[in-house]
């Protein structure tokens, strides 16, 4: 009986099969990555919608929107403690237990509030955020970052002397009513994406009423002095100051600003003087909305609760009009 001979694969045939598999993988991988990014973008959009719903539930319960930051206890019938918008809307984000452990009449760093600042609130973190991690000091957890900032306005966030507000949707020591949005809440930004662990410059007191129009102009202000922070912007979700939980429309989304020693290249921010600090001028801030989403887009919440995507190529005038609640510029399609 003659045994049949089985012919094995030749080396060339094996290499051809491997090459075909490699080509298929290279074709499939971008599609998988695009599907994952689409899912992350959808979840990010849902986070912003939840924040919008929480803001309007807060409005229903308190007849006004929350302040961005409170420097004086019981000013405008709101407790002090420098707590953020994010902290104040916790009961409307299924975070009532965490909110009930906080005493908003005391500073968030007070002993009675220990442990709150380090808590991760999932709704405040974009799934595309690369640094979704606890901020440490000497190896000890002290804060948790955010991916969404409130709209602090165009440039002047707060006048530290006259104590007058800026033109954003949220500001220091003031809780706005719907009537305070004469441009319409569908024409005013409420929240937008920001990157955690942003380098920033603060307290140089070099800001003026002249609004910088480019990242290079902001970089020039930074060069005049102040304190450069390597990577601690947008790392404190409990802190209501604009460089921690806000943004401004000074520059278009994803604009580049250099902070000397900054850990994240040119993704820097600027605050001339922190709110509630002793400075000669107002708080002027170029705190830019930025995102890790592909395509140069950031996702933003409008004050009416709707969520839109905006390109980094948006006209600066349009972006600033959206950031101002009362500039008289009622936009149509944008």
Description:
The chain has 334 residues and is of the alpha+beta class. It has one domain (39-323). It has six helices and twelve strands. The protein has helices spanning 11-62, 85-88, 96-100, 215-223, 242-245, 316-323; strands at residues 135-137, 140-143, 148-151, 156-158, 189-193, 198-202, 227-233, 246-247, 269-271, 283-286, 297-302, 307-311. The strands form three sheets. The chain has a five-stranded mixed sheet. Strands 4-10-9-6-7 form a five-stranded mixed sheet. Strand 1 (135-137) and strand 2 form a beta hairpin.
What tags apply to this protein structure?
single chain, alpha+beta, 334 residues, 5-stranded mixed beta sheet
Distance between the termini: 83 Å
Mean pLDDT score, rounded?
Answer: 89
| Beta-strand proportion | 15-25%
Biggest β-sheet description: 5 strands, mixed
Poorly predicted residue ranges: none
Elements, N to C (H/E): HHHEEEEEEHEHEEEEEH
Q: Widest sheet: strand order?
A: 8-3-5-11-12
Task: Give a count of the beta strands, DSSP E runs of length 2 or more.
Answer: 12
Query: What is the percent of helical residues?
Result: 10-25%
What is the total number of structural domains?
1
Q: Determine the number of helices (DSSP H or I, runs of at least 4 residues).
A: 6
Write down the overall geometry: globular
- The helix-and-strand class reads alpha+beta
- What's the alpha carbon Rg, rounded to whole Å? 24 Å
């Amino acid at each position: 009986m003659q045994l049949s001979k089985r012919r094995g694969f030749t080396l060339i045939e094996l290499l051809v099969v491997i090459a075909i598999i490699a080509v298929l993988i290279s074709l499939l991988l971008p599609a998988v990555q695009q599907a994952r990014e689409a899912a992350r973008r959808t979840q990010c959009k849902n986070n912003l919608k939840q924040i919008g719903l929480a803001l309007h539930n807060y409005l229903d319960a308190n007849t006004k929107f929350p302040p961005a930051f409170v420097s004086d206890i019981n000013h405008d019938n709101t407790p002090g403690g420098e707590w953020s918008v994010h902290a104040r809307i916790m009961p409307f984000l299924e975070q009532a237990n965490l909110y009930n452990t906080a005493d908003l009449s005391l500073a968030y760093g007070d002993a009675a509030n220990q442990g709150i600042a380090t808590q991760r609130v999932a709704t405040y973190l974009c799934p595309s955020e690369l640094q979704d991690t606890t901020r440490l000091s000497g190896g000890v957890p002290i804060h948790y970052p955010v991916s969404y900032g409130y709209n602090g306005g165009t440039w002047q966030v707060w006048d530290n002397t006259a104590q007058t507000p800026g033109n954003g949707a949220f500001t220091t020591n003031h809780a706005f009513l719907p009537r305070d949005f004469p441009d319409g809440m569908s024409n005013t930004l409420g929240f937008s994406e920001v990157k955690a662990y942003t380098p920033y410059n603060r307290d140089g007191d070099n800001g003026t009423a002249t609004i910088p129009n480019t990242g290079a102009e902001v970089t020039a202000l930074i060069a005049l002095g102040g304190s450069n922070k390597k990577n601690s912007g947008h790392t404190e979700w409990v802190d209501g100051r604009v460089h921690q939980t806000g943004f401004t429309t000074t520059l278009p989304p994803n604009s580049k600003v250099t902070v000397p020693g900054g850990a994240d290249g040119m993704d820097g921010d600027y605050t001339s003087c922190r709110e509630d600090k002793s400075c000669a001028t107002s708080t002027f801030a170029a705190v830019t909305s930025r995102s890790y989403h592909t395509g140069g887009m950031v996702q933003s919440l409008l004050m009416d609760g709707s969520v839109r995507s905006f390109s980094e190529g948006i006209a600066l005038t349009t972006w600033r009009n959206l950031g101002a609640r009362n500039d008289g510029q009622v936009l149509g399609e944008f």
